[in-house]
Design a protein that fits this description.
Blueprint lengths: L3 E5 L2 E5 L7 E4 L6 E6 L5 E5 L4 E4 L7 E4 L6 E6 L5 E5 L4 E4 L18 E2 L11 E7 L8 E2 L2 E2 L3 E8 L4 E9 L3 E7 L12 E9 L2 E9 L2
Antiparallel strand pairs: 1-2, 2-3, 4-5, 5-6, 6-7, 8-9, 9-10, 11-12, 12-17, 13-14, 15-16, 15-18, 18-19
Length: about 220
Amino acid sequence: MKTSLLIFLAFFIITSHAKSQWYQQNSVVSRDLYSISFTDKNTGTAVGVQQNIIRTTDGGTTWTTQLYEMPYNLISVYSTDQNNGTAIGSGGLIFHTTNGEVTSVNDNKSLVEEFSIKQNYPNLFNPVTKIRYSIPTPPASSPLIKGRNEVGFVTLKVYDILGNEVATLVNEYKPAGIYEVEFNGHSDGGQNLSSGVYFYQLRAGNYIETKKMLLIR
């Protein structure tokens, strides 16, 4: 008896009949899933938007989350057996497992060894630009605030040429990783900003960096 599985909008449609009788099988995530790989009739892994990785060991009846939401999408997964598999995604991400669980997160670990904020792109922009930044894994000696590492609280704000704050893009705790946010040329109040030079500033712990961008209307 052949079993087939279709992924769409974070739920599964599954059949185990030759006449293609399909029924919905819910997953444990609410975002889109892009790829699935089964190594036998019971064991499978699916990946999707914002690095969701989910796994089943009962043919898709139930699913458990192995990796929670992160900034980029995973677009493909391939498993050679129950223990070994690889998933790839946007931003050069590679996840790999040798024991059925996610054990390594990026072949290029230098990407999260230090703070950085990249030049927005495109620049010049109208109406939308993107800003990429990275938060490193803090040292074991880093002080804790409310159970979180101090460097984990991140703000990313936009200022006009006079130094007035016009928009807040990030204002929350962030785990180590690589992130990307969009700036749509609007103030926090929803007003269209005028053409001109603006500055965006990343703050995380003692780290502060500012870059310039140009909005064209």
